[in-house]
Every structure is written in C-alpha cells, then in structure tokens.
TrEMBL record:
Phylogenetic lineage: Eukaryota, Viridiplantae, Streptophyta, Embryophyta, Tracheophyta
Entries under InterPro entries matching the protein: Kinase-like_dom_sf, LRR_Rcpt-Like_S/T_Kinase, Prot_kinase_dom
Signal sequence interval, chain numbering: none
Entries under Pfam families matching the protein: Pkinase
GO MF terms, alphabetically ordered: ATP binding; protein kinase activity
Protein name: Inactive leucine-rich repeat receptor-like protein kinase coryne-like
Membrane-spanning parts: 7-29
Keyword Protein transport: no
Membrane topology: Single-pass type I membrane protein
Length: 240
C-alpha cells in the first residue's frame, strides 16, 4: 500500500515542481526580453525637425539668449540658429539640483518617452516640439518662435490701446483654442490633458491663429499644480 502512495506523491511533487520551474523560467525570459527591448536613453540633442542641426542647436543654446518670460518651472528664451531660423526654447527644471530623481535611468527614460510622444503630435493649433536637449538638472524644449507672442501679451496691448483686433479675429482665436483642446483631449491616443490652459500658454502666429503651448508637461513637472482651478478642464475632473 505504501508504494502506490509514494508513487502518487512523487508524481504530484514532480508535477508541482515542474510547473513552478516553468513559471519561473517564463518569468526570467520575459524579464530578459523586456530588458533587451527597453527604450535606450539617447544622448545629446534629440532632433525632430530637418531644419535644425544638432551642432548648431548646441552652439545656440550655449550663448546668452533673449529672455521672453519665466514660470515656476523654467524660463523661455528666443534664439537664432546659424541658418537664420528663430526658435523658442523653454528650459525646464523639474527636479532640484543633483536630486536622486534626476539621476535615475527610469526617470530619464520616462521623460524621453513622454517627449517623443509630444513630438509626434501634429495639429495646426499646437506648438510642435522640434527638439529637446537633456541637461544636468533639467532639459530644454525647442519650439517654433511666434513673433506675435502669447494671448496674454496681445490682451495687454489691447488694454493699452497699442493694438486693435476685431471680433472676427477674437472668434478665430477662441475656435482655434477649442480645436486644439479637442485634438488633445479626444483625438490623441493616448489622451493628453492640458492641465495648465491659460492666456500665457496660448501663442499667436502672425495671422493670430492660436497654438497651445505647455500641453502634456504635467507628467514631467511634479511641481505643477494639477488641483482643481479655473484652468482645469472638465475632462480632468472625469478622470480623477
């Protein structure tokens, strides 16, 4: 009677051991595959526009540029490349200097993936990301320069009687902002919520066509206030 029991116990133990071994083997293989297929961390300037060369961008960023404005998370500059192209540069400092987060490869890789996603977006009413440069305590984002400035700048000039804009132009600005938000909030895959829409983040080109700026930066800026405010779109409340 003992022999059949031993045989059954041996079979059960062997089956369980084999199953556990198979699961562990599959887990190890999966980890190896994910490690080999992980996104490599790119060094130097990452360019998304054929009009911008890596070397000329580095030279331009190393010079003292014209300050356009500032925010709690960074500053905005205007600079001109050697080929005559004028660009706007936003220098972000999402982490404190020499903080552990700024040195983690996982954080660098996540930021890189988010920026590559933002660079892939193309819409008439969005400021397109043309390049970015990783720095010691942050990174610089490169956009097209729009000479008219932001909606806040235009509103100030109107109040000071330095500029007059008709209702047709005002309607065009409002419709353009809505179209940009509609693309971000409903058309994009994955969905991108702005979180920080305000007049200073609506840029206007020479024809007063609006382009949304600072969209998608909420994941990169831990200090950005994402609480409920006048700048928070209704979509954010539905996704909380």
């Amino acid at each position: 009677k003992d022999n059949p029991r031993k045989v059954i116990v041996s079979i059960v133990l062997g089956a369980v051991t084999g199953l556990i071994g198979s699961v562990l083997f599959a887990f190890v293989i999966r980890c190896i595959v994910r490690y080999l297929n992980r996104t490599p961390i790119l060094k130097g300037p990452v360019i998304f526009s054929p009009k911008i060369a890596s070397k000329t961008l580095q030279i331009a960023l190393s010079k003292e540029n014209h300050l356009l404005g500032s925010s709690p998370n960074g500053k905005y500059y205007k600079t001109v490349l050697e080929n005559g192209l004028t660009i706007a540069v936003k220098r972000l400092t999402p982490f404190e200097s020499n903080s552990p987060e700024s040195r983690r490869k996982s954080v660098k890789r996540q930021i890189q993936m988010e920026l590559e996603l933002l660079a892939s977006l193309r819409h008439r009413n969005l400021m397109s990301l043309r390049a970015y440069v990783r720095e010691n305590d942050g990174f610089s984002l490169v956009y097209d320069y729009v000479s008219t400035g932001s909606l806040a700048d235009v509103m100030n000039r109107v109040r000071e009687n330095e500029l007059q804009i008709g209702w047709e132009v005002r309607l065009r600005i409002a419709v353009g902002v809505v179209k940009g938000l509609q693309y971000l909030h409903f058309t994009c895959v994955p969905q991108i919520l702005h979180f920080n829409l305000k007049p200073t983040n609506v840029m206007l080109d020479a024809e007063f066509e609006p382009r949304l700026a600072d969209y998608g930066l909420a994941k990169l800026l831990p200090n950005l206030d994402r609480g409920i405010s006048l700048n928070t779109p209704p979509e954010c409340l539905h996704n909380r």
